[in-house]
Amino acid sequence: MPRLREGLTLHLSDIEHLEEARTDSVMPPGFGIYLFFDDSVGLEASVGGFPLPVGRHRLSDERPLGFTLCRREPAAFVRRATPGTRVRHVIISLSLEWLDQTFGHHNVALPRASQEHLAISRWFPSRRLAQTALELLDPDSEGNAAIARLRDETVALEAVTEMLATVRPPAARGEGQRTDMLLLNRARDLIEDRLGAEFSFQELASEAGVGIATLRRLFRDAYGCTIYEYVRIRRLEMARLLLEDGKPVATAAALAGYTSSANFATAFRRRFGITPSRARESVW
């Protein structure tokens, strides 16, 4: 795991497990930014007894879903993989000292996700960052060692910057909440499968195996918003990815559930600080 600078480390992995594997270790305090590029169905991992969202990472277009993990103190780590499981990931590890020295103690720029022990938060990287991170796994891209190190550090710092701007509030922690975490992950994955289609929250709750009132509470506790607001934001994020892919604004607006381009542009700018047209132009 190469250290880019004091307190900033990058770990790259592209392996396929030929036999069952288990790893038990103790993770030191720190903050991790994780990007997995495969569904990794045969992979399970937990920290401090809490499951990490490593079973499903990508959208239908193979863009990764990421997450962040904060450890304010040492925590037990357990990882299991079944034969045939492929694991491709990029992990950026930040020491707590690096965060304090870079941003200052309790800086308002730092999200709750970096302040709470065992806080786990979902994070959806932009298309450009996902592509540059994936290129780090290409063995042919290494080239000159000094240039490769500079490239690695640039990508790592870009990921930190983007994460700070887009990471979601962490799910609540405490004894008795493991079941809630699993239910929330299940509901979240169901939503990802339905972002481009209409669905009712009652149907979502039923498939997730939970009552609608409980589902509303889970989303409110984890994200500080309603299920409707969560879905609305995710559709806007998906719309931005389409725009970055060069798709027409009207197509992105329709996927986000907007029949009015003006309303879509207003919501998009409020969320991302730029217009849909600017987001589309930025990739050319």
TrEMBL record:
GO molecular function: DNA-binding transcription factor activity; sequence-specific DNA binding
Limits of the HTH araC/xylS-type domain: 185-282
Family matches, as Pfam families: HTH_18 (PF12833)
Keywords carried by this UniProt record: DNA-binding, Transcription, Transcription regulation
InterPro entries noted in UniProt: Homeodomain-like_sf, HTH_AraC, HTH_AraC-typ_CS, PchR_regulatory_protein, Tscrpt_reg_AraC-type_HTH
Superkingdom: Bacteria
Keyword flag DNA-binding: yes
Name under which the protein is recorded: AraC family transcriptional regulator
Organism: Enterovirga rhinocerotis
